[in-house]
Amino acid sequence: MDNAMLVQVVRECGLNPTEWRASDLLKEFDQDGDGVCSFNEFIDMYMQLKKEELSIENTCELFWKAFNYFDTDSSSSISNAEFRQTLHELGDKMTDVELDHLFNLIDTNKDGQLSWQEFQNFLERDKVASVAFFEAEVSKAEAE
Predict the structure, then answer these.
(1) 114, β-bridge pairs
(2) What percent of the chain has pLDDT over 90?
(3) Contact criterion met (CB below 8 Å) for 61 and 37
(4) Over 90: is that where the pLDDT of 135 sits?
(5) Among 14, 13, 38, 11, CA closest to 26
(6) Helix H segments across 30-144?
(7) Calpha distance 21→64 (Å, rounded)
C-alpha cells in the first residue's frame, strides 16, 4: 500500500498519525525499499505507532496526576501558594524569588493561577525531564 492508503488503513485501525508521520514511517519500515508497505512491514509499523500512542497517553495521564497533586484545594487551577508549597514539600531548593519567577513563566495569561493547559504546555516543553521528575514524585506520593 502507498502512503495515502497507509494513512487510511492506520486510521481505520484506531490510530491517527499525520500524513507526514505516516510518510516518515513508510520510509523507516520499507525494508525492501520499494516505496510501498507490505503486510509484514505494516505490522511492524503499526506496533511502533501503537507504542507511540500509548506513550503519549501515559505522559498525559502522568501530567494530569501531577496537576492534581499540585492543585491541593481541587479548584482546577494551581495558585502560587499551592505551587510553592508543593515544590517545597517535594524537596525543591529553589528560593521564593526563583519560584515566583518560574510560576510567572508558566502563568502565560497572567491571572495568578495555573490552568491545566498552562501546566501541560510548560511540561511539554521538556517532556523527558518532566516525565522522569513526576514519575518519581507520583510514586513517592502514592506510596505514602
Answers:
(1) 78
(2) 19
(3) no
(4) no
(5) 38
(6) 39-70, 80-89, 96-106, 116-125, 127-143
(7) 26
CA distance 121 to 115: 10
d(CA 59, CA 62): 5
The CA distance from 105 to 35, in Å, is: 46
**Confidence label for 131 from pLDDT (cuts 50, 70 and 90):** low
Amino acid present at 127:
K
Distances from the Cα of 35 to the Cαs of 1, 6, 25, 46, 82, in angstroms? 9, 12, 11, 17, 54
Phi/psi at 76 (nearest 5 deg)?
Answer: 70, 20
pTM of the shown model: 0.55
C-beta of residue 10 within 8 angstroms of C-beta of residue 49:
yes
Tell me what pLDDT residue 76 has. 95
The total number of residues written for the chain in this structure: 144
Work out the mean pLDDT of the chain and round it to a whole number: 78
